[in-house]
Amino acid sequence: MIGPEFREIQIDLGALRRNVAHLKTVIGVEHLMIVVKADAYGHGMIPCARTAVDAGADWLGVADIHEALALRQAGIQVPVLAWLHSPREDFQEALANRITVGISSLAQLDAVASASYAWEDGPAPVHLKLDTGLSRNGIAPEEWRRVFERAAYLEGDGAIRVQGIFSHLAGAGPQADLAAHVLFEEGIAHARDAGLNPTMIHIAATATAVTSTSMRYNMVRIGIGAYGVSPDDSTPVADMGLTPVMTVRSRVAAVRKVPAGVGVSYEYAYVTNQPTTLALVPLGYAEGIPRSASNNAPVNVAGQIRTISGRVAMDQFIVDMGSEWVAVGDPVVVFGDPKRGHPSVSDFARACGTIGYEIVTRMGGRCVRVYVEL
Ligand SMILES: *Cc1c(COP(=O)(O)O)cnc(C)c1O
C-alpha cells in the first residue's frame, strides 16, 4: 500500500494566520472578509475559516449557500456572504442561519424577500452585487434602477435591508479597473438616490486590495493572498509579506537505472539522453497534477530542483535524476515555500500554462491533508 507520506498536502495554519494578520495591518480597512469558497481554495474550509477568524477576519465569503451552511454547522458565527445562487434557490435556510445573501438579479431580490416574509425574523440583510464589467453574475447596469427601486420598496416594507453594495473587477488592466471603479461609484450614487443607505461598500479582491488604496472602501474580500499565493504569479508572494500555506509532499516510491535512449512514461514523450537514474513519484492527474506539467514543471526531489520527465499519468510521474544520488523514500516537494528550496506554486503553475489559483484549488485525489502550525 502507498502510505499517506507519499501523497500529502500540508496546510500550514500558522502561515495562514500570519498572512491574514499581515493583510489586515497593511490594508487597514474597517472590515476584512476572507474568502473560503471552494474548500478554501483547496486548503480545507473549516480549519481555514476558524484560523482566519482567529487572526482577525470579521467576515467570511463563499460562493454557494451550501458552503455558508457548512460554516454554520461547524459553529462559525461571524457574518458570511454568499453570492452565487441556483435559479430556484430557496433562501429560507440561509436566512434561518443568518447568512447574508449577495443579490445579482431582481428575481433573487424577490426570492429573498419572500423567504424573509415566511421566516418572519425581521429584515434580511442583503448586499447588492453590481456588474461593472465582468458580464457574469452581478446586476447588469440596465437593471440597476429597477432593482434599487424595488429594494427601497422592500426595505420600507421590512422584508430586507440593503446593508452593502459590492462588485468584482475583471483584472483586465488599470484602464478597465478605472472604468469599473467609475461605474461602481455611479451605481452607489444611484442607489442612494433611490433611497438606499448601504453601510458596507466593497469591490477589491487580493490584487486590488494590496496594490490600490482608492478601491478599499470599508471592506476588502481577500482570497488567494491569505493562502500565500500571488494573484498574478509574477510577483513573488514574499514581496507581499506573505507565506505559502500549501506544500505538496511526496516521496520517491521507486528508483530505476536505465541506459541512454530509453523512452519514459506514455508515448515516450521523454527519452533519456545518457545512462541515468529515474525516480518514480506516486502523484498523478488524479491528485491534481496537470497533464500539462509533463516535461515542463519543476519539482524538488531529494533537495534538488528537477523537471518532470515525460507524461504525467493518472497515478504517477517520473523525474530523471541524471547522475544525482537518489533512493526510495527520499523526500519530494511538488511546490511549497521557495524560502525552503521548494518550487513556488506560481512557478509550477506557469510551467503548466495556468495560474496558482487553479493549482492549489485542484490538488486532492488520494492525497491526505495534514494540518500543521509552523
Ligand atoms: C473569489 C472571489 C474573491 C476573492 O478573490 P481573490 O483574488 O482570491 O482575492 C473576491 N470576490 C469575489 C466576488 C470572488 O468571487
TrEMBL record:
InterPro entries associated with the record:
Ala_racemase (IPR000821), Ala_racemase/Decarboxylase_C (IPR009006), Ala_racemase_C (IPR011079), Ala_racemase_N (IPR001608), Ala_racemase_pyridoxalP-BS (IPR020622), PLP-binding_barrel (IPR029066)
Q: Name one GO cellular component term.
A: cytosol
Alanine racemase C-terminal domain location: 245-372
SMART domains attached to this UniProt entry: Ala_racemase_C
Q: Which cofactor does it need?
A: pyridoxal 5'-phosphate
Which CDD domains does its entry note?
A: PLPDE_III_AR
* Family annotation (Gene3D superfamilies): Alanine racemase, Lyase, Ornithine Decarboxylase, Chain A, domain 1
For this chain's UniProt record, which GO biological process terms are given?
D-alanine biosynthetic process; peptidoglycan biosynthetic process
Keyword set, alphabetical order? Isomerase, Pyridoxal phosphate
Q: Which GO terms describe its molecular function?
A: alanine racemase activity; pyridoxal phosphate binding
Whether Isomerase counts among this entry's keywords is yes
Q: Which residues form a coiled coil?
A: none
> What protein name is recorded for this chain?
Unannotated protein
